[in-house]
Amino acid sequence: MPPSVTPDWTFEREHWRRGYFRVAGVDEAGRGAWAGPVTVAAVLLPGLATEYPFRDSKQLSAAQRETLAAQVREVALSWAVEHAWPEEIDRLNILGATHAAALRALARLDPAPQALVTDYLKLRTALPLSAPPRADALSYSVAAASLLAKTGRDRLMTELDDQFPGYGFAAHKGYGAPAHRAALRELGVSPVHRRSFAPIRALLAPATSLFEAE
């Protein structure tokens, strides 16, 4: 997908034609990270096919994301951000935890949505759902949600960097960067790492085996 792609209302219009005018966009941030939460945002924008400057958060600088996220919060009819922390991720698996956080975010929207557009997140819901791939680059509603999810999670990872110094969470946001790998070898696994993820599980395996042998 070229970075110059501009979102529009194509997927929302499919729902509008069926009489569902309150269409919420849903997107997540942090599914592939080794530490910290997966964060899901739900955004209900005003309809009327207004054009917005919102874009997929991955196409923007941190400063641009913060500016546009503030605009999303200002213009949205309703918005919500929810986090699924490592304990929930380890218990439900990453997809299950992402779905649970998405449903919590949607439950907080007021007015309630009548239909959804997600970034390939096929939620179990009674609401009419469109879940195309790369919807964060193609749909205004999902782009708006991507901005809130990304900026919300980035702020949390910066806070976790203060709480757990040495891991570099503020820089790599919990993803498997070389600096993160090196910090794990030196410091071990923190309370905010996802123990069910293979790289973390591998680090814990020797200690687990020793404990079980005793």
UniProtKB/TrEMBL annotation:
The keyword Iron does not apply. One of its GO terms (biological process) is DNA replication, removal of RNA primer. The keyword Ribonucleoprotein does not apply. SUPFAM superfamilies: Ribonuclease H-like (SSF53098). Residues 21-209 form the RNase H type-2 domain. It comes from the Bacteria. Manganese or magnesium. Binds 1 divalent metal ion per monomer in the absence of substrate. May bind a second metal ion after substrate binding. Endonuclease that specifically degrades the RNA of RNA-DNA hybrids. This is Ribonuclease. The lineage of its organism: Bacteria, Thermotogati, Deinococcota, Deinococci, Deinococcales.
